[in-house]
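Recall that a protein's primary structure is simply its ordered list of amino acids. Everything else, from secondary elements to tertiary packing, is in principle encoded there. The following example makes that idea concrete.
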Amino acid sequence: MEVEPKYTFVPLAQKNYVGINNKTTQNLLSKWGINGNFVIQHFSFNEPFQQYHKYHLADAFFKENSVANELIIKQGNCWVKQGMTASIVDIKPVACSVLSMSFFDKLKDPKNGIVYKSGTICKRYDMEIENFLISDRLRGMLLDEECPEYNLYSKDDRDEFIFRIFQMLVLGGTLCQYEDILDPYLDITKTIYKDLIRVQKQNDSDLSVSTLALQVVAKDDRAQAYFPYNPSHIQNIGFLLVDTIAHEITTFLHQFGEYSLSGAI
């Protein structure tokens, strides 16, 4: 029987993401109430890794002191290093296979009722779902299971990491100024996705995503979730992105709330 590796993790310096740190991206993230509410961090590990080690890797990651001492979590309106190791780690694989923004073409086709030919998002009657005001068909597609637009994307599509990014941007934070057109949401989704994942060639021509995505909820010794805090809220999400080639882990944590300058990425 194979013995699972004993992983050791080393914190890495913050990366300079060309896309995410771009002024246009930062301005839109602020407009949507996202900027200042998410943190990205980086760690490396040297031990061998296979796909079937993913649960063990994620569990070990949150229980390692070197990670706990560096991991930034949100308390109130501040991002802090609390030094907390996990007692329980809930782990869910997230599909990460999309290679083209054609994935979102269904939203751009006026026949599907999300946008007009001009690209303007179609309005609809107001409805509150999960404390979000649904006043257009784009948000209806995301949250209103009773509307026909909801069925444009299957459950598997909605589980894709790129769809999760898109949803996070469209729903926004507490102080969110919504867009009237679709393109800005797609542009920033592409920017963040491209910055966070690695694409590699296979057989000299075929491309594939080599990044492994995991949605995680880390809990303390009282079974209280802290990464993310209050994970029952749709906008409180935590991911581990494992670069299987470079042996690096990127953490992505978003906490719903008002815009916070402290800890802004």
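The chain has two domains: 9-93+210-254, 101-196. Helices lie at 23-31, 54-62, 65-68, 105-108, 137-143, 155-158, 161-171, 183-196.
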